[in-house]
From TrEMBL, chain A:
It is found in: Mitochondrion matrix. PROSITE patterns: ETF_BETA (PS01065). Belongs to the ETF beta-subunit/FixA family. The electron transfer flavoprotein serves as a specific electron acceptor for several dehydrogenases, including five acyl-CoA dehydrogenases, glutaryl-CoA and sarcosine dehydrogenase. It transfers the electrons to the main mitochondrial respiratory chain via ETF-ubiquinone oxidoreductase (ETF dehydrogenase). The lineage of its organism: Eukaryota, Fungi, Dikarya, Ascomycota, Pezizomycotina. Its cofactor is FAD; AMP. Pfam families: ETF. It comes from the Eukaryota. Keywords: Electron transport, Mitochondrion, Transport. This is Probable electron transfer flavoprotein subunit beta. Heterodimer of an alpha and a beta subunit. Binds 1 FAD per dimer.
UniProtKB/TrEMBL annotation, chain B:
Residues 87-266 form the FAD-binding PCMH-type domain. Belongs to the FAD-binding oxidoreductase/transferase type 4 family. Residues 1-25 are annotated as: Disordered. GO terms for cellular component: mitochondrion. One of its GO terms (molecular function) is FAD binding. Signal peptide: none annotated. Keywords: FAD, Flavoprotein, Oxidoreductase. This is D-lactate dehydrogenase (cytochrome). It comes from Lentithecium fluviatile CBS 122367.
Amino acid sequence: MSGLRILVPVKRVIDYAVKPRVNRAQTAVETASVKHSMNPFDELSIEEAVRLRERKVPVAEIVAFSAGPPKSQDILRTAMAIGADRGIHVVVEEKDPQLEPLGVAKLLKKVVESEKSDLVILGKQSIDDDAGQTGQMLAGLLNWPQATQASKVEIANNTVTVTKEVDGGVETVKAKLPMVITTDLRLNEPRYASLPNIMKAKKKKLDKKTLADYDLDAPPRLKIIKVTEPPPRKGGVKVDDVDGMISKLKELGAL
Amino acid sequence: MASATSEPHQPDAEGDLNGAPAPAKTIKFTSETYPEIKRNSKFAKLSQEHMQYFQELLGSGSAVLDGLSKDASEDIEPYNSDWMRKYRGHAKLVLKPGSTEEVSKILKYCNDNMLAVVPQGGNTGLVGGSVPVFDEIVINLQRMDKIRSFDEVSGILVADAGVILEVADNFLAEKKHIFPLDLGAKGSCQIGGNVATNAGGLRLLRYGSLHGNVLGIEAVLPDGTVVDDLLTLRKNNTGYDLKHLFIGGEGTIGIITGISILCPQRSAAVNVAYFGLESYEHAQKAFRAAKNQLSEILSAFEMMDGRTQKLLRTGAGKKLPLEGDHPFYCLIETSGSNTDHDSEKLQNFLEHVMEAEIVSDGVLAQDQTQIADLWSCREGVPEILGHWGGVYKYDLSLPIADLYDIVNDVRDRLTNAGLVGDDDSHPCIDVVGYGHMGDANLHLNIPVRRYDKEVEKQLEPFVYEWVQKKSGSISAEHGLGIAKKPYIGYSRSDTMIKLMRQIKDLYDPKGIMNPYKYI
């Protein structure tokens, strides 16, 4: 088997430790001067690709890919510091129409074709819109086998064995390459980007492209009507004794 | 008992650190630990008549905890004993005034009637300064917890002394400002107590000490005089700046009831990097490079020796960010207003220290979770050191060039005495050093399996004499209280102590304020 050509799509999102705030117009989440980082599931994807190489699975190339604003470059550099060989950045300005999961999947299909990738590892969802669709749609468009929510990936010859997280347990599936895998939290623990690797990553190739370069027109199909915050948690009450609790519960209609 | 302070673990009833904090009643009375300290007979004993006065003044509700006319020891115990479970007094009365006026009336009455008092904030001190020794009346400021004003243009906060530090900081965070002090006990300690003890902490490198940030103080002297110096001016050259006597005075000349403090803008962009280095010399070079290239965005420079990090791995099972062992580690934090500007500076700095081989290896946090994880390599150290039974801790200021030498010297000394080893026959696990390198503040720690007289004999006065030779300070940020009272002479000359004494006598001629402590 010749070396694997792995494609790892990554997304720049609001840092998961930051509490998002809805803008005044209730049209979107506030993103200006908010800390952004790589989607945590995508960190798992890049880590897994690098570990495959470290486990002596023949890997010809790991390509990190992102579509998004100019700052998405930062997370591509992070991906390269963790171990991707080069990066591709399709610039989608914040003022331009944003890609929906189907648009991303169509774009990724074109990238897979031009890069001759035979394995795509991507996060099972991005934590900003939580759609959780891109991997599945990509597999459909490519007509490739897919394994979602991976917690373990093994590759021998042309066969991929993936342990998947399913409701109440795990499920193990097997398929031939080429293939799409989406990652789940138990898959691995991403490493830190070390300083020497951060330096090296700055010298790695990063291609800047546009949607037009891939001849893609994917206008949004959905219109966002309103964005609101979840209702604030109501404060609790203290009761003196069991009787007090029972009468309180009755009063609230819980009993 | 050694004077080393042991934060932040609360020992349990057996004196080790595995169980829940020891119940207050099992703590040895300070008067038994230090039999040489005798109750001063000039102070009056609390009587029903006194009690009546306080009840009329404050009401008979929760503002007066009366242990004289009834058994209130359960309620009073938390005010009698300190957080470290090392000191315990015999107070029979706790007063919780709700206003400056009430504090004034209480103090005047105590002064007239020769009743000794102990001012108390969140009672999180590490040197026993905030609890009574004998039957001093505890004056706790917790009911004075109002934020009085905040000016968003100047960033000046005016607040009661009893406001909890974290409450103040959360209030400021809403307004995109930051309290210029941060420390582990922020959830319980009060800002008045922080000022009275001149607390140091994690933000000192960037924002400076409270002597610089506190702009004004409202305090009450023992005779009831209200020192109304609650100014909100940055510049005021009009004679002696008396507020500084109260900052770090540890409640020995008056009680702080309110402060005004300059609060900086909260930084939007924060970055954290963690390095492994070959030697302490390399750590110093890295510090110089950081000051030079990161200058105004540098907000923390912490040093941990390799032994602390190894203990984190073996003791806490923590996965360290760097592979391999390095003799020293440093943590750098930058905070600024513009992510791009900071990142560029940081990249240049990192490139420089790597290329010049000042650091051997390092990582840069890529997200908020990694920032917290890198910080835990520093903040987790005090906790893990208590893992084996106990810790002797010294909080020292030393010239930065000599900062780590004392750790090596103490380690050699204890090793030569056969006290350090891997098995149970040796009391000491290791001798380690870490701390706020940017502030030349070293925490010299000796994690032990058990407290041992032989170890104490080797440590004291050796450590204090060592510090004295280098003109360092025996207490960089923890204060003196009762724990370091005998050792003040190692850091202050007789003349300096005499001048302090004169000030004490001037403002507190009857000596009722926090007696038996350092002065």
